[in-house]
Prior knowledge:
Layout: E1 2-13, E2 20-33, E3 39-43, H1 50-57, E4 65-70, E5 73-74, H2 80-86, E6 90-93, H3 107-117, H4 123-136, H5 153-165, E7 171-175, H6 183-200, E8 203-207, H7 211-217, E9 220-225, E10 228-234, H8 235-240, H9 245-252, H10 259-264, H11 291-295, H12 300-304, E11 310-313, E12 316-318, H13 323-328
Parallel strand pairs: 3-8, 3-9, 6-7, 7-8
Antiparallel strand pairs: 1-2, 1-4, 4-5, 9-10, 10-12, 11-12
Helix pairs in contact: 3-4, 3-5, 4-5, 5-6
Amino acid sequence: xxxxxxxxxxxxxxxxxxxxxxxxxxxxxxxxxxxxxxxxxxxxxxxxxxxxxxxxxxxxxxxxxxxxxxxxxxxxxxxxxxxxxxxxxxxxxxxxxxxxxxxxxxxxxxxxxxxxxxxxxxxxxxxxxxxxxxxxxxxxxxxxxxxxxxxxxxxxxxxxxxxxxxxxxxxxxxxxxxxxxxxxxxxxxxxxxxxxxxxxxxxxxxxxxxxxxxxxxxxxxxxxxxxxxxxxxxxxxxxxxxxxxxxxxxxxxxxxxxxxxxxxxxxxxxxxxxxxxxxxxxxxxxxxxxxxxxxxxxxxxxxxxxxxxxxxxxxxxxxxxxxxxxxxxxxxxxxxxxx
Length: 339
């Protein structure tokens, strides 16, 4: 999956005449690639554009600009018929296990719906396929006649996973699949996704707030801020030596199990609010809250020049004018061996 300068803007309309007064830049010029068989974790604050980006990649949300290619094929010019055939290869697991399942349908009907839509099986073969999928995600195959309200949150999310797997996809957008679950259940769903990826050769875009979960499941990590990708690299590199000040601020908020180490850490408290995506600041979008910007005496380029992703280490890119300085900082990060 490849995105080149991908944009998703939502119009702001006046209340009376419905004239366009501006736009919310939910995704604003994202360039990224996800290799076959890998998991790319995507993290960032609420409202930074993570879910919108995931939906735009599989055309559940129409992009405003840029291109998206799946297996080398541009998705933009595809008709609805061509896109439907391609949807067998691209699926999504939704964030809310309570709102993403139709309460009027049985579990068997929910999981069987994509099978029927793509005419993959019928009759007894379809029922057997549904039972196999339920068993694959750790549910009793005999649950096909039950309704969603009879299940816990973790079980409902497993039903959502089974529905996504029903058409044997290659690429799955996992849109915060564990954020609505209890902590005790989150680990079970994470391990299920890891096992399925290994067994079926899946490729994931894993969207989450939980940095520990992203570290557990991802080969590479991307960090978003205000509609743009500010850092991307191998998980080991990003967590050990983050190159963007925002990434360091996020990691400094992750608790460490060792109390002695936790007391020695230098935490980052971001001041101010996230700027409006309808009117982002000029230059680096993070400079209004950046601790490194203040420490370096407020350099002019941070206010005037928008940084692009550039290579700052082996397999690591960051959109920061002073990424090398950020890497050398002692703020917020603890080596895994020390912790």
